[in-house]
Amino acid sequence: MLFYLAGQTSFGNRGCEALVRGTIDILRETVGPTTQFLVPSVDADEDRRQWPDHADYGVRFVTAPTMPSSLKWWCSLMQRLPGMAGTQPPLPHYSAAVEADLASVDAVLMIGGDIISLDYGIHSLYMWSRLIDRARALGKPTYLWAASVGPFEANGNVVTAMRSHLRGYKGITVRETTSAASLAKDYGLPVKVVGDPAYRLASVQPRSELGVDMERCRGAVGFNVSPLIRKLFSEQGGGRSLEDTVLDFLRWLIDDQGRKICLIYHVDQTEKPDNSDLAYLRQLAASLSRPDRCYVLPPGLNACELKGVIATLDSLVAARTHATVAAFSQAVPTLSIGYSRKARGLNEDLFGSIDYLVETKDLTLARMQQTFNRIQQERAGISATLREKARLLREAALESAGMLRG
User: Which intervals hold domain Polysaccharide pyruvyl transferase (predicted)?
Assistant: First the structure.
């Protein structure tokens, strides 16, 4: 079989890379080792460097879709003109290369995690949902794969459109019970909760040529924060900047707790410099001015190598979902910085609570210190829970393939 993996355009986002690699692992195990995949990319040469043996896994990088002008204009008008309430977006054609790729495959999987939501704005939601609708118009079966879905209630137009869009999938699996409950209650859709495909991702030692100082990582507190969180934090108000809050927390870890810090990026996209964790973390390290106790990972690590580094940490504080999943899957105690329903849902499903989560709207120095201390006090129980749940979720990730049968 030949699958098109929609919802990702760049391995510069290691979360996307983790989803692609994990999904391919699942399908090669369940469908068969000769299964083939078209993986969209905005920079295929760079993605090939990040995954040198991709061809051994049946992968071919193809042209990534871009948003058609007609759809872009429609989204902009809908946001500005109340009179457009209730209207639905056009079904555009995508580029000739993308249309040819869609026409060539046996099925299309939407694997982009939380793309079918408003987390990244209405333009992103319709870019991807209408691509799936276009694949259906070409006669291709489509599947929503291990997703976090919604919420959509902030925009009535979106609710109407998504009701139709979601019903068009041949099957839907989700990675947390909050999405499953919402889809069942609000949309009447039967869905299955499965493990995130990233639980299947390999954990490997970084390549020597990347120059990672593993001694500075081993036993450190890993820290990840993203420009996305900065934007959401500023929208919440509260007087202090995210940078001030984060720097105070890092100084507290170093000076009061005697810790060493490893700053870990999980997104470093050359095509989206404003979304680069690495650039942002380097700025924080320069402001902290403690090179003896604070180490920034060098560029170029792929998702498997970042997971290998995370395995050596004492604990992790992270905003990016798949940085936390890499830690969860290796029993590393983790403080999640949450900005959407997915962080809350993943924590609730793992621990039955959000005791180890600080939501962006509540991100203060005191809350971070309190939650970090609690994690340290309860670390033995946390690690035991994660070891057991990670084993189960690794197996549960295979269950997405069940909806493809027949």
Answer: 13-340
Read off the pLDDT of residues 265-286 as tens digits, 9 standing for 90 and up: 998 877 676 778 999 999 999 9
- Tell me how far apart the alpha carbons of residues 93 and 352 are, in angstroms, rounded to a whole number: 44
The reply to whether 2-200+394-404 and 208-393 are identical in fold is yes
Query: Tokens 């042209």 map to which residue?
Result: 63
Q: Where are the domains of the chain?
A: 2-200+394-404, 208-393
Residue 185 to residues 59, 177, 191, 320: CA-CA distances in angstroms? 37, 12, 11, 28
pLDDT tens digits, one per residue of 287-298 = 999 999 999 999
Which two tokens mark 54? 């991709």
For the full predicted model, state whether its pTM sits above 0.85: yes
pLDDT at residue number 159: 84
Where is 41: in which H helix or E strand?
strand 36-41
CA dist., res. 354 & res. 15, Å (int):
22
Residue among 388, 368, 364 at smallest CA distance from 376: 368
- SS3 state of residue 329: coil
Residue among 400, 396, 377 nearest 315 (CA): 377
Q: Is the model's pLDDT at 236 over the cut of 60?
A: no
CATH of range 2-200+394-404; options 3.10.310.10, 3.40.50.2000, 2.40.50.100, 3.20.20.80: 3.40.50.2000
- Would you say 373 and 394 are in contact if contact means Cβ atoms under 8 Å apart? no
CATH number for the region 208-393 comes to 3.40.50.2000
Question: What mean pLDDT, rounded, does the chain reach?
Answer: 91
3-state secondary structure of 381: helix
Q: What's the DSSP call for residue 367?
A: H
Taking 70 as the threshold, does the pLDDT of residue 82 lie above it?
no
